[in-house]
Amino acid sequence: MIKFITKEQVLPLRNEILREGKLKPEECIFLNDAAADTFHLGYFEGDELVCVASFHKQLHEKFEGEAYQLRGMATAANYQGKGIGNRLVNFAIVYLRGKKINYLWCNAREKAFKFYQSLGFELVGDFFDIPGIGNHKVMYLKIQ
Question: Can you give the pLDDT at residue 133?
Fold first, then answer.
C-alpha cells in the first residue's frame, strides 16, 4: 500500500540503501525535505515500510514549466526487482499530473538508468560525479 509519509520515515531506508548504512539517519536529510510543497511517499508491505521516495518542487534550467525533482528513492534490498518502485513512482506521476506539474526529473545513478527508462524517463546531458556516490545523469519525464 502506498501512503504519504513524513520526512523522518524516509531516513532509515535512505541511509540503508543509498548510503550503505554509513551515516546517521539525520545525516540523510536533504535540503527542502521539510518544504511545504515537498511530499514523501512510502510503500508498505503490511506494517513494513519497504520503499520510499521524496518529491521536491524544483525547477530545472533545461525544462520549461512547473517541475518536481524525485530524490532519495530507495527500496529495501529484499524487495528490489518486484515492481514496487515502479508502482510508487507511477502513483506520484498521477498525483503530480493532478497538480498540473509539467515535468518530473531526477539525478539518476548509473545503475538506476534502466529503472527510470522503464517508466518513460529520458536521459539528459553529460555524466556528473557526486563525490562518494558515483556517476549520475539527469533524467526527466514529461507529465503534461
Answer: 81
Is the pLDDT reported for residue 55 higher than 90?
A: yes
Measured between alpha carbons, how far is 11 from 119 in angstroms, rounded to an integer?
24
Distance CA 120, CA 103 (A): 12
Judge whether 108 and 121 are in contact, CB under 8 Å: yes
Q: CA 20, 86, 103, 128: dihedral to nearest 10 degrees?
A: 30
Domain count, the chain: 1
Distance CA 140, CA 50 (A): 24
- For 137, other C-beta atoms within 10 Å of its C-beta total 18
CATH number of the domain to which 80 belongs: 3.40.630.30
What is the pLDDT at residue 5?
Answer: 98
